[in-house]
Amino acid sequence: MTPSTVRVATRGSALARWQATYVARLLAAGDPDVVVEEVVVETSGDRRPDIPIWELGGKGVFVKEVQAAVLDGRADVAVHSAKDLPALTHPDLVIACVPTRADPRDVLVGSTLAGLPAGAVVATGSVRRRAQLAGLRPDLTFAGLRGNIDTRLGRAPEFGAIVMAAAALHRLDRASEITEVLEPEVMLPQVGQGALAVECRGDDRALRQRLAAVEHHPSRLAVEAERGFLAELGGDCDLPAAAHATLSATGQLRVEGLIASLDGHVVLRHARTEPVPSHAVDAIGPADLGSAVARYLLDDAGGASLLGR
Question: What pTM did the predictor assign?
Fold first, then answer.
């Protein structure tokens, strides 16, 4: 059989390249005749590591240029960290594959949460992490921190602790740097954290079929539920927001969501569990379940006021 080439667009960081290579290996394992080529794209978020993400325009700063490479024909597939992908993306693209999700939790590097003295400085570029930590420990202070994994780890000694994603450190063999893993009960993860989202053009049916063969269904359900939560908040909410979905061994999909004030004085959480969606007409889909959790936080828990609604 003649080899077929799949061009994979990715950011140029070590983590992004690892993720692209991982997807390439999945494709090759499913079809030994496939040849995968990387198309490295620099994004606006990579070019301005000195500016907080929310000032650059939110999550999309890490994905738009990578998506453009697929839309203009330079690449066939775009590999993203699912947490970087806005809830509403380009209409000509589809998330064709969500591989097996890695650890979605946040971690501390440098100190445990209990070990931080009053007034300690915790560095993070995430308003979600900052608000939840401020709610738990109002005595802490915070500093911004951006850059690739090595840059952030290199600056860890400057602070009491830094907050990072467990999946990133595991993928780059830096898990030994972890001081404490923050369970979701302590810090609810970002939507899609630990998962990958593989996009292609919606009209490329052959490639969509190839990618579907390497999808992990439970991970897909969880990511869709969390993205449904974010979409209900407005697509790319500027305020601290988080969601974590899990699938039980008995087929129950549980979604927990959170919205908070920037200072952490108000932290609202709500969870809901439903059977795994079936083909029944009245079955609630994963995105609808995430949306229902968001609606409860907005309408019943008083969260709408946090969004100025």
Answer: 0.91
